[in-house]
From TrEMBL:
It comes from the Bacteria. InterPro entries: DUF1156, SAM-dependent_MTases_sf. This is DUF1156 domain-containing protein. Residues 14-88 form the DUF1156 domain. It comes from Methylomonas koyamae.
Length: 767
């Protein structure tokens, strides 16, 4: 391969870093509208802007003069030309330009121009016909694709895009982003429009045209509506309206009542038997707070009323007394206080009660939609009784891992994924899951009626006809179920300052909650099926580039063994040492996806739980000890990197993101950090690092495991396979040097920098 002429790429020379980082930070802000990340939750996603910029700069030739290749222009002109390329990059990373076709076309043209120059340089190469075809761009591959940011951006830039991941949930997310939409691009929807119900959105088309994935997204919405109606017939009785004067349920079909309102959510509080022998027959509440709303002018709180050996909850409007904030908590050590006697309830006691199956839950408040916003009502026995009618026919039995760092509920006896849901939540999620397969049959029949030819092949077999189309809609409907699960488990929380439900995965862990909202999935407001479907549909449109013409292929593959990278351009983002246990976390979703979609993807969902053994995460609890975990990570990552060094297309550098925390530069010499082990793997695998770019890929204020693993940003390593005769320095020396340089680079990043050069130690590294 050494006789291949490989012009330097822009990313190996200079980048407008400040613009990229600014765009990346902007994209992480909430409230920027539909975004591909909304399709399905994944942990530690890279910003699209950074992914787009990196892939562009890795594909475009630097204009500088390279004597040995006889290409490029003089220093001064090269600077002007670089500035022109920066101009393209600056436009390319702007969030509002994500699907701006003229901006994308300009970038694609530049990629093609560089490719043609490279082909011309190599036209006499013996394999030029296959390797350097000026009419065919090399394809892209990300072997740790996760939430799909990198493969999606490669596709947007006009490359045929390949994604793989070990995790079936990640594989499905990538399919939903880059593989499925192009198959059905530009098709009109086939589903029946929802009947006029007085609700504007339900009856109208959501889009003005059927370009890109809009037709598919509209069908997700239409069949989502159908599923809602079917589900309501089956389980609507579990979700009654409420009488605003009494707090009692009003069954559906009871006709319009003067004081009726839609319930948004029921607030539950977990309970244990009082440890005080005098009250040991009473279930006392473990309330983290009694505040329901802390919005100025709309304050509302729960007031527990005690009488002898019993209590009940009232709900009061107005400024809450100071004590309401703390609920029944007692500070760190004691956890809670018995509401009746003030006796301390410590964590050990709660754990023992939970494990003995004596942790219960009481209704603490009802949140309804009044004519002027949220109304908070005191709980009633009748409302509790409705919830108690729910009898789930199924629940996920998969066990949570024995990983006390990130999974807290097993300590309290909630050991299976099914334990994280109330019976009513289980009934609802199971009902929607059953309906996915029924909807799939209906969609196929409707598609045939609409004249779509059926090749009898499902998505899994590469079909594009009626069967595959039904499969496709079903995938996005199943994603809506996962969204409901995320916001509709008993690990979700209520945020009084925003009067809103917060998701289960506020961070990459499953904590315990003491009080939680149980949303009305049929409310048509807040956390409900209708909104989950809308979210799925809107984000599908946001995910697929406007025309969705560039194809994508997604596989389940272990990065240590894959052959997909052969002759492809690679940009990837491997797991950061022990930071996120993707496989363990994603079981939360896998159990529901498997239930809904196994007939569509039988191989992907063959196992009861997400495969864990090959996951490249250094988790001591899985490998027996810290040392064994580190060794596993080093060996596995070296094998994975080796696959890349061997297979990557020879003219493009490989780019590798690695999450980075400030302490990584400061704790020099304090043993092996994730970084050291990772770098060792990269170097051992036969790569040399030609540049390192600090990227701001995480929100600075992100809520992560009590600061211990704060991911401030990423470093993008630009790598080339090492020449056999390359000069070397020791690994230790290299890491020391890199850390020093990174430290400065981070300062530069924080201070802002225009068009700076990459930070890289001299090109003489060994393992
Ligand atoms: C940092 S994440 C990728 C995130 C992605 N770039 C994004 O923006 O969403 C790393 C991924 O590596 C995957 N992974 C872990 N071990 C793997 C293995 N042995 N083979 C393939 N993928 C693996 C995890 O499932 C996870 O999705």
């Amino acid at each position: 391969m050494s006789n291949i002429k490989t012009p330097k790429k822009l990313i190996e020379v200079a980048l407008p870093l400040d613009d990229i980082n600014e765009a990346a930070a902007h994209e992480k802000q909430p409230g920027i509208g539909a975004h591909p990340r909304g399709l399905h939750l994944w942990w530690a996603r890279r910003p699209l802007a950074a992914a787009r910029a990196v892939i562009f700069a890795q594909m475009v030739n630097d204009p500088g003069f390279e004597r040995h290749l006889g290409r490029g222009i003089n220093k001064k002109d090269a600077q002007v030309e670089r500035e022109r390329l920066f101009g393209i990059l600056r436009k390319l990373v702007v969030w509002e330009n994500t699907n701006n076709q003229s901006v994308l076309e300009e970038a694609r043209a530049e990629i093609w121009k560089s490719w043609r120059e490279t082909c011309a340089l190599n036209k006499n190469h013996p394999d030029a016909a296959t390797m350097f075809n000026p009419e065919k761009l090399p394809a892209f591959h990300d072997p740790f694709a996760g939430g799909g940011a990198l493969p999606l951006e490669a596709q947007r830039l006009g490359l045929e895009s390949y994604a793989s991941d070990l995790n079936p949930v990640a594989v499905l997310i990538n399919k939903a982003m880059i593989e499925i939409p192009p198959k059905f691009a530009g098709r009109a929807p086939i589903g029946p429009l929802p009947p006029a119900t007085g609700k504007k959105d339900a009856t109208r088309n959501a889009f003005d045209d059927w370009s890109g994935a809009r037709g598919l997204a509209e069908d997700v919405r239409r069949y989502g509506y159908w599923m809602r109606e079917e589900a309501f017939k089956r389980i609507g009785h579990l979700y009654p309206k409420v009488d605003l004067t009494t707090g009692k349920p009003i069954p559906h079909g009871a006709g319009n009542q003067a004081n009726e309102a839609t319930v948004i959510a029921w607030i539950w509080v977990r309970t244990v038997k009082s440890p005080n022998p005098a009250f040991s027959h009473v279930d006392v509440p473990l309330a983290s707070t009694f505040i329901l709303s802390s919005k100025a002018g709309k304050e509302c709180y729960v007031e527990p009323i005690i009488g002898g050996d019993s209590y009940y909850f009232e709900v009061r409007n107005g400024k809450p007394p100071e004590r309401a904030k703390a609920g029944t908590t007692a500070g760190k050590r004691n956890a809670f206080l018995c509401l009746l006697s003030g006796v301390a309830i410590d964590y050990n006691y709660i754990r023992a009660e939970g494990k003995a199956g004596r942790m219960g839950q009481n209704l603490m408040a009802i949140i309804a939609e009044g004519s002027r916003g949220r109304v908070y009502l005191a709980p009633t026995h009748e409302m509790e009784a409705v919830a108690n009618q729910a009898q789930p026919a199924w629940q996920p039995e998969t066990q949570l891992p024995d990983n006390p760092r990130d999974f807290k509920t097993p300590n309290y006896g909630m050991t299976s994924f099914g334990d994280l849901f109330t019976p009513r939540q289980l009934v609802a999620l199971t009902t929607f899951s059953d309906l996915v397969q029924i909807a799939r049959e209906k969609i196929k029949a409707d598609a045939l009626t609409a004249g779509i030819i059926d090749d009898g092949q499902g998505l899994n077999d590469g079909g594009t006809g009626a069967t595959a189309y039904a499969d496709a809609v079903a995938v996005y409907l199943a994603f809506a179920i996962d969204r409901l699960a995320d916001y509709g488990s008993s690990i979700a929380t209520w945020k009084p300052s925003g009067e809103q439900v917060m998701q289960t995965f506020k961070r990459q862990a499953l904590p315990i909650t003491w009080d939680f909202p149980e949303s009305n999935f049929f409310a048509g407001k807040s956390i409900c099926w209708e909104n989950a479907v809308k979210y799925s549909s809107d984000n599908l449109v946001a995910s697929s580039s406007y025309e969705s013409v560039f194809s994508g292929q997604v596989f389940q593959a272990d990065a240590q063994r894959q052959n997909i990278s052969m002759s492809k351009v690679i940009s990837t983002d491997p797991p950061y040492y022990d930071n996120i246990g993707y496989a363990d976390l994603s079981d939360f979703f896998y159990v529901w996806l498997r239930r809904s979609l196994r007939p569509i993807y039988p191989a992907l969902f063959a196992t009861m739980a997400v495969p864990k053994a090959e996951e490249l995460v250094a988790t001591p609890y899985r490998h027996g000890s810290k040392e064994k975990a580190e060794q596993f990570f080093l060996n596995g990552m070296t094998a994975a990197m080796h696959r890349l060094a061997e297979q990557a297309h020879p003219v493009f550098p490989t780019t590798i993101y690695y999450a980075f925390k400030q302490s990584d530069t400061t704790d020099v010499g304090t043993g092996n950090t994730g970084w050291e082990t990772f770098l060792e793997a990269v170097l051992k695998a036969g790569f040399t690092i030609t540049g390192t770019w600090p990227m701001r890929t995480e929100l600075a204020n992100r809520m992560i495991g009590s600061g211990t693993n704060a991911l401030a940003s990423s470093i993008v390593l630009v790598c080339r396979p090492r020449e056999a005769n390359a000069a070397t320095i020791s690994r230790r020396e290299f890491i020391k040097e890199l850390k020093q340089e990174l430290s400065e680079a981070i300062d530069v990043m924080i201070g802002g920098a225009e068009g700076v050069s990459p930070v890289a130690p001299p090109l003489r590294q060994n393992s």
